[in-house]
Amino acid sequence: MQTIDVFNGDADGICALHQLRLSEPADSVLITGPKRDIALLERVRAGAGDRVTVLDIALSKNRAALDRLLAAGAHVRYFDHHQPGDIPEHPNFEAHIDTDADVCTSLLVNDVLGGRHLPWAVVAAFGDNLADSARAAAVPLNYSGEQLAQLQSLGECLNYNGYGETLADLFFDPAQLYRQLRPYADPFAFIAESDAYRTLAAGYAEDMARAQALAPVESRPAGRVFVLPAEKWARRVSGVFGNWLAVQSPSQAHAVLTAKPDGGYVVSIRAPLVDRRGADEVASQFESGGGRKGAAGINHLPQAELGRFIATFYRVFTRS
Question: What radius of gyration, in Å, describes the C-alpha atoms of the chain?
Fold first, then answer.
């Protein structure tokens, strides 16, 4: 019998898995990739008696592969906060799905575990740019402001590592990064002892400084649009730069378009923090788009679609 863990390569996916395996240790097969590599169930080969846990990848983008696994007799447990489409009913399927804009996958796992590893759920919520949710979840921990700042930095760094066109863009393969986290029940010990954390913190600071020096290509009261060059640093920083922009100007929506070497753009969309809705509405109008209400993306926006994207972005976020 196999145990297979399938997880998004960002902070939320990694911390969700970390909480589960701290509570339920298993020598599992790990299947993951860069944050935008979400069709992960296609890579799973499982049959009767095998147990598959899926964390932080949209069911709607994996439905055919999920149906195949269930038909083969695998047991599938699914935690996610993205729009799922139709959720199957099957005796071997256990779903924990909530699309509320203030929820992330790690907070769903935390609920199921009864708060057993709450600090890691707080890390993930910070990484997913849900700072208010992170602070609310952390209340029982009685952490100081400095401790919360440390967890926020860790969450942002773990999330930053997930962005890139391929694994070659990342500092660490997300599976490798998870393995480095695995010995640590205490995130503060990981912060104090981990070379990986120091590597990510330095890279994050350098890449963010480059992004923050850029001016928007379009700026209106409803939101701002930024375009980053077709370079590794830009691919790494695209999502966390969008999160940072949202915090800096919470009443505006933001779009970060990162040029691809072969043409077109990867797009990160952030709804205003004061009104977390609309990002998925924009992204879903483009072929490779998807996500959730507060944050969404488009894996490939052709150059010819740029004008339509900008018009759609401002139409959705210009609200009466």
Answer: 19
